[in-house]
Hints:
Elements: H1 2-35, E1 47-52, E2 55-58, H2 66-71, E3 78-81, H3 82-93, E4 98-104, H4 113-128, E5 133-140, H5 142-148, E6 153-162, H6 175-181, E7 184-190, H7 198-201, H8 207-231, H9 237-242, H10 244-249, H11 255-261, E8 267-268, H12 271-282, E9 295-297, H13 298-304, E10 313-319, E11 322-323, E12 332-333, H14 334-347, E13 352-359, E14 361-363, H15 364-379, E15 384-393, H16 395-398, E16 405-408, E17 413-415, E18 419-425, H17 427-432, H18 457-482, H19 486-492, E19 497-499, H20 500-505, E20 511-512, H21 515-525, E21 535-538, H22 544-554, H23 566-590, E22 595-597, H24 612-625
Parallel strand pairs: 1-4, 1-9, 2-3, 4-5, 5-6, 6-8, 10-13, 10-21, 11-12, 13-15, 15-16, 15-17, 16-20
Antiparallel strand pairs: 7-18, 14-22, 17-19
Amino acid sequence: MAFIKGIWRILGAVKDGLVLLLLLLFFGLLYAALTMAPTPGSAVSSGALLLDLDGTIVEQPAEIDPFSLLAGSGPQTREYRLADIVAALDAAKNDAKVKAVVLDLDGFMGAGQVALSRVGLALDSLRAAKKPVYAFATIYTDDGYQLAAHASEIWVDPLGGVALAGPGGSRLYYKGLIDRLGVNAHVYRVGTYKSFVEPFTRTEQSPEAKAADTALAGALWQNWQDEVAKARPKAKLAGYMADPAAAARATGGNLSQAALAAGLVDRLGSEASFEAHVAKVAGEEADASKTGFAAIDLRTYAKAHRPADDGAIGVLTVAGDIVDGEAGPGTAAGDTISDLLYTALAEKALKALVVRIDSPGGSVMASEKIRVAIQSARDAGLPVVVSMGNVAASGGYWVATPANVIFAEPGTVTGSIGVFGILPSFEGTLAKIGITTDGITTTPLSGQPDLAGGTTPQFDAVMQMGVEDVYRRFVGLVAKARDKSPAQIDAIAQGRVWDGGTARQIGLVDRFGGLEDAVAEAAKLAKLDPAKARTYRIEKQPDRIIRFIEQMREGDEDAAPAARDLLGRAARAQRLWAMQAVGDVRAMLAGNGVRADCLECRGLGAPKAATREDAGVWALIMSALR
């Protein structure tokens, strides 16, 4: 018996060893697959570079929860990094393998105006190099058409058209509902134009906020019209946008023919006809299940032509909401970003720092943590240059204050120098169902804030004074950075949001220019040759397993079916509107301390995918309504 037991133990050990060996082999192969960097030209055949933008263009794609991704429950919106698209287009300009560039905009969900303009500039450069650019969509809306205007040929499906709306629209105000529910929204704020709290305190937009928003929207819309008119002079934009119904009636209600008559598109045709046309230039695709022309995948091509990431100019990205604690890419977490910068300053021989900002702001504490880290780079002797993307407002401007030079674009949204705090209490709600509170206090602040019994006047006074003190500090930081008096900054602050052109005129930014201009300026200040200066991206790298899962997801063509016709796109807009309501409710309930945040900025960039938390709140709301 002992002999049999011994044999069994040996067999068990052999089995365990084999399992361990197979696991090691699997993960070794996985590691090798993940660490193999594509060499320029690898896996890239001859054909048309296909920009099938079935999602949004962002400054920094968000990190996806791997468990949600594997379960198919994570956000389905794909995000394309702006820098990757620009690098791919720049490389394609002189690549003989790339015969043309194709913009498939059927699933495009938008981007900020600065990002769209930068891609448009790269497309113009391609056309100047005699590379044709073809665009196709069923329905073109503002963002998609801003890109398509830079194409050599614009195609639209005969069942589609061009629907240009311009910035604007309504938002929800909850004051009436809050009053009916008995919720008391305690608001502490500084800034005549700080409208973030208005949905909870008013039933309509304040005259000051409406005037500021009207001016901002007008400036951004003029920038859009100027760019499109320059890229496509034959487009009769003014008449088409002034009375789209008349344009449609002139063609018997045929929207595609109306767009053709107005010079907004060049050809009407199905997707199959469009692909056959491109195939005459790019060649045919051997696999009939794919596109009708030889296509070069954007992600593969971008990876093969990504610039070296070993330079002496650090590029720190502050993208997304500014939040406390830690978070992955796509969210500007105070601890994460400051730690990344401190590590880079300690371990890399950096000569200069460029801070790329694309954020509407958020937590004051997190903004200050990031600002202090950036200031430490300047205190160490590194020149600091800020490059503003689509949005660099409120907390996004707070983190820009250590800069030697600030670059922005005419379409950048910035300013919003103001702060606020919001705290709900539910004494009225509880009273409606017969619940009251009582207790004892030893000081005016005992038990405060009491979310069930309400706040005291003393507590409210202390909170308001705290918010005012933070505002004075914000104004002081800006005044010192811009070499102005606090009174001069206060006059252009008060929470007001400015377009980049006006911000330059009033001294909130120094020059117009993009990220490349900021890098060149940083090199110049560091006494480096701008033509030879290379960058080092200071960014949290995604886990290798997450990268592997995301690569698997990239091949899933059915992950996010796009709404193609006009009504389908309207339905998608309704879903975004519903998620806005959920986000508003969560913002009020969460509190999240004193904030330097910008309400107006949140509808100006790429649509943000709903989080699992938002989806959960929405499910609760819908179940309550059934």
